[in-house]
Design brief:
The complex is a heterodimer.
Chain A: H1 2-9, H2 11-40, H3 60-67, H4 69-103, H5 106-121, H6 124-135, H7 140-147, H8 162-185, H9 189-197, H10 202-213, H11 215-230, H12 234-239, H13 247-256, H14 261-286, H15 290-293
Helix pairs in contact in A: 1-2, 2-14, 3-14, 4-8, 4-11, 6-8, 8-11, 9-10, 11-14, 13-14
Chain B: H1 2-31, H2 51-57, H3 60-93, H4 99-111, H5 114-126, H6 134-157, H7 162-170, H8 175-204, H9 207-212, H10 219-228, H11 234-274
Classes of the chains: A mainly alpha, B mainly alpha.
Chain lengths: ~300, ~280
């Protein structure tokens, strides 16, 4: 590898490339993750006790998690809600991505893509805050439903999971639309026409032609959305009630309220492990590799 | 025929609903800026006012946070862009066994939740005596923003015509000159747009920053803390300004794209005539 780099760029530049990547991958990615795992396997000690006889390898931090029913249920609720968010986002994005890729004229599609990006240049907190206003107890949604005569007293949207679900679908939709669009866009229009001419209905055309072709895009979109949803802190903090907490909030509390970093590291690793499992599962299920994801 | 017409009509209706869903929240958020109500809302409308703009202007904490955000974003540019470009050069040059492992490693920050990146950075650097603050925020954000830069630069690098490189070397250029005069100018547009993306990503990042910022509040952290405590429509005024800024940037981009498209068409017409 080193030879190939030097042959193309020469020694100094080759060394610069390797040095920059080394700083990144070793100092900013690998060692920090390793340190986090290491932390999670040690008890929380005072600085004076570190390296002493109490400083042993232990699974106690993980045992805490498996013995705490509330934390367990929040963990599984986070998984389940994130899967739901992912499925909803996919359902909402698919028709749009198909329209942009295969139905709209190129200029139209470019404009729509630009419009799509605008909300995402404004930061996630503000996007979520916008829904906070809408869902407020005396906010516009309740007023509208009231005016239409659908409810006779305001609903506390911010007290359950609805707010979190809607807010998350809104916050992460772009990460689903773009991979889907890229995948569907590369499908030859003639294939769709051929399927239609051979008598396939719309549903069958999508099931047998478009969706199989878009598989890498669907996988990428699902992976990104799930990861963002499971790792989200802002949306549940703003739109969820104190009663419907997210796993990230518990991690945060271990760090900055409980002050037990070792315990927090164990919880963080559980979240990381969950995401790794999900990514591997989706890649197996859709039979795609890492190369397909990054396209 | 009839069925497919209904379908395309349905698709169009869906599109309209979708874009309403996309923009209505932003419109409502912006509109609440002009409501005199102390709590940001549009219902009930208690009177039209511009007072929240001056409230925002007078908010010293916001300006400090904006300054911190700008410093962090510049820092991220200086760190993530060179790293991303170097990785792109590496991936498009090297072939062989270890490559797929390095590739997986490079992509991993994109598939890791932001909170994890923040936490691991915080833990690792504490061992070296570096606590949460602007420097740590730059390091943590760069860890995943570099991967975005890498993807954008790689995409352009893959379309690079290697014969240009060989030609430069055959004509006596050193490898450094080739890089400086041929490869880098070719990559310029990709590097520029990656830099813009990196800047925006840094400005809007919350999850990672939350853990590593220490006492240095960035703009997103400041907005989040405002939303949870002491919420006034001054936050909406800030949101409105950011929306207007974004829309303006999008319009500039669209106008540029259209002009380039027209130029391309004109050029095509000219070459057709001369052929």
């Amino acid at each position: 590898m080193w030879r190939q780099l030097c042959d193309r760029f020469g020694m100094p530049l080759g060394m610069a490339v390797v040095a920059l990547m080394g700083i990144w991958l070793i100092l900013m990615v690998l060692l920090p993750q390793w340190q986090m795992i290491d932390y999670s396997l040690h008890p929380s000690l005072l600085p004076a006790e570190q390296g002493g006889e109490k400083d042993v390898w232990t699974l106690a931090n993980y045992a805490t998690f498996f013995q705490n029913e509330i934390h367990l249920s929040i963990f599984f609720k986070t998984i389940w809600s994130s899967v739901l968010v992912t499925a909803l986002t996919l359902a909402v994005s698919y028709p749009l991505a198909y329209y942009l890729a295969k139905v709209a004229r190129p200029g139209q599609a470019a404009l729509c893509l630009l419009l799509l990006i605008i909300p995402f240049w404004i930061n996630e907190i503000l996007r979520t805050f916008a829904w906070y206003i809408i869902f407020a107890f005396r906010g516009p949604l309740n007023e509208l439903l009231f005016a239409l005569g659908l409810i006779d007293r305001p609903i506390r949207f911010l007290n359950g999971d609805i707010g979190v679900l809607v807010g998350m679908v809104y916050a992460y939709i772009l990460f689903m639309v773009f991979p889907l669009y890229n995948a569907i866009e590369s499908l030859d229009r003639n294939q769709i026409r051929a399927a239609r001419d051979l008598g396939a209905g719309w549903i069958r055309t999508h099931r047998r032609i478009v969706i199989p072709h878009a598989k890498p895009g669907i996988a990428t979109g699902c992976i990104m959305t799930f990861m963002l949803a499971a790792g989200s802190y802002a949306v549940p903090a703003l739109l969820g009630a104190p009663g419907s907490r997210w796993f990230t909030q518990i991690i945060y509390n271990w760090f900055f309220e409980g002050g037990d970093w070792n315990q927090g590291a164990a919880y963080a690793f559980l979240l990381l492990a969950l995401c790794i499992v999900f990514v591997t599962l989706v890649m197996r299920l859709f039979k795609v590799g890492l190369g397909d994801i990054a396209r | 025929m009839n069925a497919s017409r209904w379908l395309s009509l349905g698709l169009r209706a869906y599109l309209v609903i979708f874009f309403v869903y996309l923009f209505l929240p932003l419109v409502i958020m912006a509109a609440a800026t002009f409501n005199a109500s102390r709590f940001p809302t549009v219902t009930p409308w208690t009177g039209t006012t511009l007072q929240w703009f001056s409230a925002l202007w007078a908010d010293g904490g916001m300006w400090d946070a904006l300054f911190n955000s700008a410093v962090v974003a510049v820092g991220v540019l200086c760190l993530a862009v060179p790293i991303g470009v170097a990785s792109a050069l590496f991936l498009t040059t090297v072939e062989g066994r270890g490559k797929s492992f390095v590739y997986a490693l490079i992509l991993s920050p994109l598939l890791t939740p932001g909170v994890i990146i923040g936490i691991s950075t915080l833990i690792f650097w504490r061992g070296w005596g570096l606590n949460g603050g602007i420097v740590l925020t730059v390091i943590a954000q760069s860890a995943f923003i570099a991967a975005y830069v890498m993807l954008m630069v790689t995409a352009r690098l893959q379309r690079f015509d290697r014969t240009l490189e060989r030609a430069a070397l055959d004509l006596g250029a050193s490898q450094w000159q080739m890089f400086r005069r041929v490869l880098l100018p070719y990559l310029r547009p990709a590097i520029l747009s990656a830099a813009v993306l990196a800047f925006l990503q840094s400005l809007e990042n919350y999850n990672t920053t939350l853990f590593v910022a220490g006492y240095d509040t960035t703009l997103t952290l400041y907005i989040a803390s405002k939303v949870r405590t002491g919420l006034t429509p001054a936050v909406n005024a800030l949101a409105l300004i950011m929306i207007l800024f974004t829309v303006a940037m999008a319009m500039v981009y669209e106008i540029k794209r259209r002009r380039e498209a027209r130029l391309a068409v004109a050029r095509l017409a000219v070459t057709d005539e001369s052929a």
